[in-house]
Amino acid sequence: MSGIFGILNRVGKPVQPVLDQMGKAMALKPWYRIQSRAVETTVGLGQINIGVFCSLPQPVRSLDGRHAIVFYGEITNLVDLQQRLRSIGSRCDFTQTADLLVLLYQAFDREFVGMLEGFFALALWDGDRRRLLAANDRLGLVPLFYAHYGDCFTFSTQVKAISQQPGFKKHLNLTATAQFFRFQRLMGGNTFFEGINWLRHGSLIIHEPEQNSLRVESYWDYDRIPAENQSITFPEALEETCRLMREAMKKNLQGEHRPGIYLTGGLDSRTLLGFASRMGTRISTVTYGIPGCRDLTYAARLAKSLGTDHHPFPQENGLWIPEQAPFHLEVTEGFTTFIHSHAAITLEPARQWMDMNLSGFNGDQLLGSRVVDHFPVGYNGLDEFSYLSACFHLFNQSSVWAGITEPEEKQMYLPEISTHTRDAAYESMRAEVMSYRGFPFDRWTDYMSQINQCVHLSHFNMVHQRAFMEVRYPFCDYPLMDFVYSLPMNFRKNDRLYLAVINREIPQVTWIPRDTDDMLLTRHTTIRRLHGSWQKIKKMINHHLVNIFPEYAPYHSDPDGWVRRDLQDWVAGILFDRRTLERGILNPKFVHSIYDLHMSGNVLYSIGRLAPLVTFEMMMRRFFDQ
User: Fold this and answer.
1) How many Å apart are CA 286 and CA 357, to the nearest integer?
2) Which residues pair with 147 in a beta bridge?
3) Which helix (H) or strand (E) holds 575?
4) What are phi and psi for residue 100, nearest 5 degrees?
5) Hey, what domains does the chain have and what are their CATH numbers?
6) Mean pLDDT of all residues in 499-527
7) How many CA atoms, within 13 angstroms, populate the side-chain half-sphere of residue 483?
8) Pairing relationship of beta strands 43-49 and 33-40 according to DSSP bridges
9) Which residues, in sequence order, are bridge partners of residue 67?
10) Do 67 and 124 form a contact (C-beta atoms < 8 A)?
11) Is the pLDDT of residue 557 over 90?
C-alpha cells in the first residue's frame, strides 16, 4: 500500500542506500511509485504511492530549506486550515497537501497535527531544532511502525521495510505470537518483531537524533470526544446525523478519481451507495461470495435498484486461496489470517472500474454500536474483573471465528516457548483494555473495540485493497464521529439510529433484506413482521414438506468447508512440512491434533484455530527465514 518511510542515522553513515532498499521492499506491484531523498547526510525521507493520492513529488521542502516532509493520506479540512493560516497573517499558497502541512508546522509547531482531519501518516524533519516528528491520524488508519536501535531510528508504513534493514536483528516477539493464536490479531504496539513498534492511534513521535532520544505522545484519544449530550432528543439526533452524513459523503466524493463500492447485503455499503446515488454520482460496485449467498443476491438487487455498474465475482470453491494468499500475506505482513483475503480475486480487475473504494468501514460500529450490542454479557452488575473476562471471551471467541482455548494453549507450545507465552495473551489484552479505563463499561467497549477489533483486525481488508486502489472512509469523518459518539448510547443500540438514517434518507434500500437476519429494514413495523413471518413459513415448507423456495447462504465465504474440500493438501503441505515441525515453537502433536479436529468436521468454525497456524508459518518463512 501507499505510505511513508525514513531513517535517521546518528553515526554519519549515508542513508540513501538504506532508503533505496526500504522503497524496494515496499514496492509490491509494478504501478508503485517510489520517491526518496537524503534531506541531510544522515536524515532520509521517502514516500511511496500507487499514482492516485499524493502522487506529486516528495519529500517537500520549505522555501528556506529548513524543513522537509513526507505525507500520505487525505486531509478533509483543507479549507479550514487555510483560513487558520490567513487569520494569523501567514501565507497559505500550496501545490499539494504536504506544502500546506509545512506551513502549518511553521505557524503552529507540533500542535498542527491535532488540527488535521482525515487519514494520514506524516514525517517532518526540522533542521533548525534537529528533530523529527512522525504522526498518524486519530484512528491509525494508516499503520505506522518504528524502531529505535543503536544509533538508528527508522519508520515505515510497512514492517518489512524496517525488518529487512542491515543491522536489524530479527527476534520473534512471543507476546505478539501469543496474541495472534488467541485473538487472530495483534494488540497494542506489538508486531511480530521485537524492537519494531506499532504506533498507537492519534500519536506523535518526537525523535532527536543528536541526543538519541525518542518519545511518543498522544495528541488525541477518546477522552477528547464531546461529553454526552443528555438533553438532545432522538429526532434532533437523527436530523443532525443525516446532515453530517451528507457532508461526509460530499467530502468523499470530491475530486476526479473514479469512486467504487464493495457492495454487500449489509448496512454499510448500501448506505454509502444510497447517499452517493442521491447526489447523482455514478458508482461502480463489486461483490464477491459463494454462489447463492445473501451478499451476491441482495447486492445485485441493490445495484439494480440504484443503477450501478455492477460486477459480481462468484467464488465457487477455495482454489483461489493458495494463489492469492502469498500476496495477501505480503501486504498484511501476517497481521491477519489468510481467511481474511476475501476480496483478493476482485482487486486487480476492479482497477478497471474504480480508483478508490468508498469503504463502509466503521459504519456498523459508529451508527450501530455493533460490538456493544454483541458483548458476551450484559453490563449491569459487572465489575472490573468480570468485565476483563468478558473482553477476553469477546476477542477469543465472539468477535471472529472461535480461537485457541485455554487448555489448548497449554498444549500448543514446546516447553521452552511456553515459559514465555504463558498468560502473555491475557496480560497484554488486559493492559490494552485498561488503557481505555475511565468510561462506563458500554463506552469502554465501544472505544476499545473500535481500535482493537475494527482497526487491528477488520481494517486489514482495507490495507490489502490499498495495494490496488485507494480507500476513503466516510464513516470515519471527524465531525460525524464526534457528534454520534456524544449521543446517549441507547440511541445507537440495536441499530436504532442507523435504521432511522437509512429510512429517512434512502428508503428505497429498505425493501431489500440485509444479510445478517434476512429481514427488511423498513420502518413500517407491520410489513416487517409480515415479511418475517413469511420467511419463517417458507423455511418450514422447505425443511418439512418440499424444497421449493430459494434459501440464500448467510455467509459470503466458506473457509471451513474450503479447507476440508479444496485446500486439504495445501494446508497439510504447510503444517506438516519439516520446516514447520522443526521450527521449535509449536508442539507438532498439537498441530496434528488441530488439523485432525478441523478435518473431522465435529467442531463448527474450527478454522479459527487452524488458520492462524497456517498463516503464522507462512509469515515466519517470508519475514524471518529470508
Assistant:
1) 10
2) 154, 196
3) helix 568-575
4) -65, -35
5) 3-220 (3.60.20.10), 225-361+469-517 (3.40.50.620), 377-458 (no CATH)
6) 92
7) 21
8) antiparallel
9) 126
10) yes
11) yes
Q: Residue 201, CB half-sphere, CA atoms under 13 Å: how many?
A: 23
Quick check: 342 and 319 in contact, CB under 8 A? no
- Sequence-ordered list of residues with C-beta below 8 angstroms from that of 218, at least 6 positions apart, any chain: 200, 202, 203, 204
SS3 156: strand
Q: What is the DSSP letter of 475?
A: G
Identify whether the C-beta of residue 273 lies closer than 8 Å to the C-beta of residue 306: yes
Upstream peptide bond of 59 is cis (omega within 30 degrees of 0): yes
Average pLDDT over residues 139-160: 96
Tell me how far apart the alpha carbons of residues 105 and 108 are, in angstroms, rounded to a whole number: 5
**Residue 602: how many other CB atoms lie within 10 Å:** 9
Question: Can you tell me the mean pLDDT for 212-241?
Answer: 96
Output the CA–CA distances (angstroms, integers) from residue 539 to 453, 494, 545, in the order listed: 34, 25, 10
Residues with Cβ < 8 Å from 230, sequence gap 6 or more?
A: 488
**CB crowding 337-369: b at 16 or more within 10 Å, else e:** bbbbbbbbbbbeebbebbbbbbbbbbbbbbbbb
**Strand-by-strand arrangement of the 118-126 sheet:** 60-61, 67-75, 118-126, 131-136, 203-208, 213-218
Distance CA 121, CA 471 (A): 14
What is the pLDDT at residue 526? 86
**CA dihedral defined by 297, 298, 301, 305, rounded to 10 degrees?**
-170
Measure Cα distances from 499 to 241, 261, 477, 502, 529 in Å. 12, 20, 19, 5, 16
How many helices (H) does the chain have, and how many strands (E)?
A: 27, 17
The number of C-alpha atoms within 13 Å of 3 and in the hemisphere containing its C-beta is 31
Overall pTM > 0.85: yes
Contact 501, 242 (CB under 8 A): yes
Cell numbers for 215, please give them: 518519545
Which DSSP letter does residue 63 get?
A: T
Instruction: Say which residues have a Cβ less than 8 Å from residue 550's Cβ, sequence separation at least 6.
Output: 292
Task: Please report which confidence band the pLDDT of residue 592 belongs to, taking 50, 70 and 90 as the band edges.
Answer: very high
Which amino acid would we find at residue 520?
A: L
> What pLDDT is recorded for position 537?
83
Between these two residues, 469 and 603, which has the higher pLDDT value? Answer: 469
- pLDDT value for 621: 98
Per the structure block, which three cell numbers stand in for 16? 540513501
The H or E element spanning position 560 is helix 559-565
Q: Which residue has the cell 498522544?
A: 218
How many Cβ atoms from other residues are within 10 Å of residue 224's Cβ?
A: 12
Residue 235 has pLDDT above 90, yes or no: yes
